[in-house]
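F.,

This is the one I mentioned.
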């Protein structure tokens, strides 16, 4: 059905429904490309040909061949795989003819009201994820792991409590990192070891990995403004995490000193801990329980490959991460396309245990230590800051390239196959 022949009221309703679907996908973690494709597909099913233009802060949906358009406020601040799955299910039903067009809008409204993961699940898996990351980085003492889990659980409860008072997404990671710093500093005054891991691990679960990946994908697709905005948002969150952590130490009157490299753990322990970390981020992103085993299995496999490359083959952490993430990208890409899930959220869940939070926060602690010492700082401190910063950067680049390269190649070949047909 061509757009000009539609009744004006029906055309307006179709435009409104299409804009709502695009907004929900965009705001809850779907990649920009998949958001545009899904919205245009829904528009065709509703009888209009639309052009979707996403920006940071708004989405413009235009009906081609007419001056009619709608601008909807939308910021890609959250990740909710349950809502993305519900929205794409509605789109599929409309396109397949199993859901009437006039019921699509109300179905999308219902999808937008799906609750996130419960507070109990969110808190429990935050504690599990932080403790698992502690195991991966060499903390095997029960006291240290319990302290990490308790700090992350308190931070998770604080995040949920703050969400009821403020819609600002920057407040929550700042306060959670502040709590982690206070707990770690208090533990340090009590004489407990491995204080850096007590501080870092609860903060690692706050790192905005999906936003980094979505921003990198947007840059790769030459959506420069949106990609830069996504990466800037992620960078601000990381800076606030570092600031909160350091302020927590300052509030107790302690200092977070840099620490040396972590010790490797046995393969079985490493792989199991990686699976637990993946499960925790699945809870953060409101992943349905039935889908959770898939990223857990992929994440455990990828971590086993990385462990073999780093510990057995002697490769660098960046090289091991690059190879592992490419394998994850190859496995995950066709699955998320078939299930219409957000690629960045699912892919990041599978490789979350490889995030270089330890090196990143260690570099931040070194910078603070450098400022406090001043010109008399030893050269080893400077080289340590540089080594940690460069290592963190290389690992993030390896993760980004490793995950999005299979995604881009798959899209390229899919488009070529469709055009040939």
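My design for it:
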């Amino acid at each position: 059905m061509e757009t000009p022949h539609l009744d004006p009221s029906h055309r307006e309703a179709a435009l409104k429904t299409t804009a709502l679907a695009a907004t929900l996908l965009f705001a809850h973690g779907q990649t920009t490309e998949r958001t545009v494709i899904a919205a245009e597909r829904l528009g065709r099913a509703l009888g209009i040909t639309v052009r979707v233009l996403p920006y940071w802060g708004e989405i413009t949906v235009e009906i081609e061949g007419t001056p009619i358009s709608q601008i909807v406020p939308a910021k890609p601040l959250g990740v909710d795989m349950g809502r993305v799955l519900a929205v794409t299910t509605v789109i599929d039903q409309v396109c397949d003819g199993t859901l009437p067009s006039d019921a699509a809008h109300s179905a999308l409204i219902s999808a937008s009201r799906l609750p996130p993961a419960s507070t109990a699940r969110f808190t429990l898996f935050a504690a599990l994820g932080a403790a698992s990351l502690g195991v991966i980085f060499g903390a095997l003492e029960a006291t240290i792991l319990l302290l990490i889990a308790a700090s992350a659980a308190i931070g998770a409860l604080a995040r949920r409590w703050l969400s009821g008072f403020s819609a600002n997404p920057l407040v929550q990671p700042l306060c959670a990192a502040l709590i982690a710093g206070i707990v770690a500093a208090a533990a340090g005054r009590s004489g407990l070891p491995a204080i850096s891991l007590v501080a870092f691990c609860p903060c690692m679960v706050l790192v905005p990995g999906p936003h980094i990946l979505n921003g990198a994908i947007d840059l790769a697709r030459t959506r420069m403004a949106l990609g830069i905005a996504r990466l800037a948002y992620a960078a601000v969150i990381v800076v606030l995490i570092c600031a909160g952590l350091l302020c927590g130490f300052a509030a107790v009157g302690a200092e977070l000193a840099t620490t040396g490299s972590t010790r490797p753990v046995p393969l079985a322990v490493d792989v199991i801990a990686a699976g637990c970390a993946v499960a925790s981020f699945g809870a953060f992103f409101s992943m349905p329980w039935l889908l959770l085993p898939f990223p857990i299995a992929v994440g455990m496999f990828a971590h086993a490959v990385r462990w073999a490359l780093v510990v057995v083959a002697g490769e660098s952490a960046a090289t091991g991460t690059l190879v592992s993430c490419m394998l994850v990208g190859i496995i995950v890409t066709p699955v998320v396309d078939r299930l219409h899930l957000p690629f960045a959220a699912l892919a990041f869940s599978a490789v979350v245990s490889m995030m270089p939070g330890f090196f990143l926060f260690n570099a931040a602690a070194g910078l603070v230590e450098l400022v406090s010492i001043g010109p008399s700082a030893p050269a080893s401190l400077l080289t340590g800051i540089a080594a940690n910063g460069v290592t963190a950067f290389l690992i993030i680049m390896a993760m980004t390239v490793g995950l999005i390269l299979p995604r881009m190649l798959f899209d390229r070949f899919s488009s070529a196959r469709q055009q040939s047909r």
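Residues 379-420 form the longest helix (42 residues).

Talk soon.
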